[in-house]
Amino acid sequence: MVTVHPGAPWALPRVVVAAPASGHGKTTLATGLLAALRRRGLTVSPHKVGPDYIDPGYHALAAGRPGRNLDPWLVGEERVAPLLRHGAATPTPADIAVIEGVMGLHDGAVGRRGYASTAHVARLVDAPVLLVLDTTAQGRSAAALALGMAAFDPDVRIGGVILNRVGSPRHESLLRDALAEVGVPVLGAVARAAEVAAPARHLGLVPVAERAPESVAIVAALADLVAATVDLDAVLDLARTAGPLRAPAWDPVAAVGGPAGAGRPVVAVAGGPAFTFSYAETAELLAAAGATVAPFDPLRDPGLPAGTRAVVVGGGFPEAYAPQLADNATLRAELADFDGPVVAECAGLLYLGRHLDGVPMCGRLDLTARMTDRLTLGYRDAVAVTGSPLHRPGDPVRGHEFHRTVTDPGHGDRPAWRWDGAEHGFVTDRVHASYLHTHWAGHPQAARRLVEAASR
């Protein structure tokens, strides 16, 4: 096992799996790579660029440890490398970190010149890029594309490519010859007929927690695929070319300033198939602030965990489970009357309302919600409007939205946030609920304030 002094530079082998655009097969190859390396007996640390919650679930299944996000928009540039180091060292030091990119290599926050892009994160963590190319209907142009991706930002080092959806042995030979001309190594080639894919839904892949047996089989198939088509030794050699990781590891205790309040109040955190969207650092920050974190499943648990003093209900797909959530009437009634602080993001907001697509929910908030055909998606620069268990009025917060539902009304008399000249969300004496997803590593005071409120 690797031994690493927390403050010393760490020669952590690491590689970023990227692509010219979405749909080239990043998640397929990254997940398969994690699983194949783990089969070799390596301890692998999985990471995802951006705010995605679903891909890290597949990563976690493949690697056997939490999948973690690296997002400069949500946590700040200065925390990206420390969070990588923390994740790669927790619970044990990893032999290699695999970082899956988001969208195209150079695509980031709109209008911010690549900020929060995969390329931006690759620079921040000083890691080489393994480029996945969908070669459908492409020949020599694949080499021009790889060369252009590398030349666009000379500070991003493309160390090799994986050819995906290759049509035939002749097609593969043509592609390899063209890439050799421009000096880009080919580290693997996946035939079009061999590709394995996870099932999708309106917001992306179906989360692992919703279909565990099938997900295990898919990850095993991806490991087989990558082991048979990718030169794992070459990938390891590429990952070892990353420079020493000099940033100290992110520390949740230091981030929150130690325990807040007396005792260890129980903070119940929703999970299960309907509420799968959560960052690993949320529970770590709550525990560091002095809470006892207790998971519960609104689909199955008849009540909150014993001694619950605060509740966190994050994102997920309640619309896919609305009848089952409605059937758990005892838990809905308990949440409607719960007298401690409640924090809800997106799916949690819908669950606290009166109805979702006509199906009864908790009734804690006077709103109804329904599915639409319109996707609301993007990063948000928000300011807290109303004081709450999470934030003081005027606190700046960066987050993101990702949903196809709308609420009526769109916000409460005491809104949670303001951005783009409009008000959003709902705040009552004890509830903070909105569509905005935030990463508490970027705003650790939220965890501390919640535990302080629970202690009171």
UniProtKB/TrEMBL annotation:
CobB/CobQ-like glutamine amidotransferase domain sequence ranges: 267-443
Gene Ontology biological process terms from the UniProt entry: cobalamin biosynthetic process
Keyword Nucleotide-binding listed: yes
Residue ranges of every copy of the CobQ/CobB/MinD/ParA nucleotide binding domain listed in the record: 15-203
Site entry (Increases nucleophilicity of active site Cys), positions: 437
Cofactor(s) listed in the protein's UniProt record: Mg(2+)
Keywords for this protein: ATP-binding, Cobalamin biosynthesis, Glutamine amidotransferase, Ligase, Magnesium, Nucleotide-binding
Pfam families the UniProt entry points to: CbiA (PF01656), GATase_3 (PF07685)
Recorded GO MF terms: ATP binding; cobyrinic acid a,c-diamide synthase activity; hydrogenobyrinic acid a,c-diamide synthase (glutamine-hydrolysing) activity
Protein EC: 6.3.5.9
Reactions the enzyme catalyzes: hydrogenobyrinate + 2 L-glutamine + 2 ATP + 2 H2O = hydrogenobyrinate a,c-diamide + 2 L-glutamate + 2 ADP + 2 phosphate + 2 H(+)
Pathway assigned to this chain's UniProt record: Cofactor biosynthesis; adenosylcobalamin biosynthesis; cob(II)yrinate a,c-diamide from precorrin-2 (aerobic route): step 9/10
Active site per UniProt: 346
Superkingdom classification of source: Bacteria
Record bears the keyword ATP-binding: yes
Protein family (similarity comment): Belongs to the CobB/CbiA family.
Domain notes: Comprises of two domains. The C-terminal domain contains the binding site for glutamine and catalyzes the hydrolysis of this substrate to glutamate and ammonia. The N-terminal domain is anticipated to bind ATP and hydrogenobyrinate and catalyzes the ultimate synthesis of the diamide product. The ammonia produced via the glutaminase domain is probably translocated to the adjacent domain via a molecular tunnel, where it reacts with an activated intermediate.
Further comment found in the protein's record: The a and c carboxylates of hydrogenobyrinate are activated for nucleophilic attack via formation of a phosphorylated intermediate by ATP. CobB catalyzes first the amidation of the c-carboxylate, and then that of the a-carboxylate.
Function: Catalyzes the ATP-dependent amidation of the two carboxylate groups at positions a and c of hydrogenobyrinate, using either L-glutamine or ammonia as the nitrogen source.
Protein name from the UniProt record: Hydrogenobyrinate a,c-diamide synthase
Biological source species: Micromonospora citrea
